[in-house]
Specification:
This protein has helices spanning 11-23, 36-45, 63-70, 87-92, 105-122, 180-187, 227-240; strands spanning 2-7, 27-33, 49-55, 74-81, 97-100, 133-140, 143-150, 154-159, 163-168, 172-176, 193-197, 200-203, 207-211, 214-217, 222-224. With 252 residues, the chain is an alpha/beta fold. The strands form four sheets. The protein has a five-stranded parallel β-sheet, sandwiched between helices. It has a five-stranded antiparallel β-sheet with strand order 10-9-8-12-11. It has a three-stranded antiparallel β-sheet with strand order 13-14-15, with no helix packed on it.
């Protein structure tokens, strides 16, 4: 679950973004503040969160000033403002994005979706293999669903142009989604995962056995390697194949 905090002296705007957070699967509202001074005191003492939404123009201390003091307490920061002129200032304090008021739920969904997708893509060639969990964003109709899958439990993703199926050690769940291919492409940048067709990727740690092009996974699922991916898959197997020399035993 992605823990969020909302800060805005405008109570109408604060209520609106708080409601958006509650409506979005995968997001939870850890706190909301109409007073930036109270927010500063509370956030300074609290554990870090995943995402803070913050207004720019507030009394006593601006959002830009507040952000400089608490940026280390959140993984992501999104500014909400009625004035586009503050956009540059927002990025100068390492904000990830900004939402121009008044913004719709669809705009909110779109910004969150791009934020988490970008996070995955930016880690392709970094130490992404060390991550403990995946956050998979799915846009379905007018709603955004963020699925958290612990890395150790992640078995595979399969599907097609309209369906994505997320397989874990506990269960397999299907969702309607038009982004299966892009999700698979994003995860393929992480170490320890092998893409076996345009819409499928598996975890190396959950391969149980291989027979021809069929792969049996630890949760009982069997998937096949597409012809266009067989060369890379065979190269992976060859690289990791344990080669031993057997010495015949003499009959005693």
């Amino acid at each position: 679950m992605v823990k969020c905090i909302a800060i805005d002296d405008d109570t109408v705007a604060l209520d609106s973004i708080s409601e958006y957070i509650k409506q979005c699967d995968g997001l939870s509202l850890a706190g909301r503040f109409a007073d930036p001074i109270i927010a500063l005191a509370a956030i300074t003492e609290a554990d870090p969160v995943d995402l803070i939404f913050m207004d720019v123009e507030m009394p006593n201390i601006s959002g830009i000033e507040l952000a400089s003091l608490i940026r280390h307490k959140t993984k992501h920061l999104i500014f909400t403002t009625s004035f586009s002129k503050y956009a540059l200032d927002a990025f100068n304090v390492s904000a990830d994005a900004y939402l121009l008021k008044p913004f719709t739920y669809n705009s909110f969904i779109s910004k969150i979706s791009r934020l988490f997708t970008t996070e995955i893509e930016n880690n392709h060639h970094a130490l992404a293999g060390e991550t403990e969990s995946f956050y998979i964003t799915l846009e379905m109709d007018d709603n955004l669903r963020i699925i958290r899958v612990p890395r150790k439990d992640f078995v595979a993703i399969s599907g097609d142009k309209e369906i994505i199926c997320i397989h874990s050690t506990a269960e397999s769940i299907k969702y309607k989604s038009l982004k299966t291919k892009s999700v698979v492409q994003s995860i393929s940048g992480y170490r320890g995962f092998i893409r076996i067709d345009d819409f499928s990727i598996i975890s190396e740690n959950h391969i149980c056995s291989i027979k021809g092009a069929s792969i049996l996974l630890t949760n009982g699922l069997t998937l096949k390697v597409a012809k266009s991916y067989q060369y890379d898959f065979e190269a992976f197997i060859s690289k990791n194949l344990l080669r031993t020399k057997f010495k015949a035993l003499k009959n005693i």
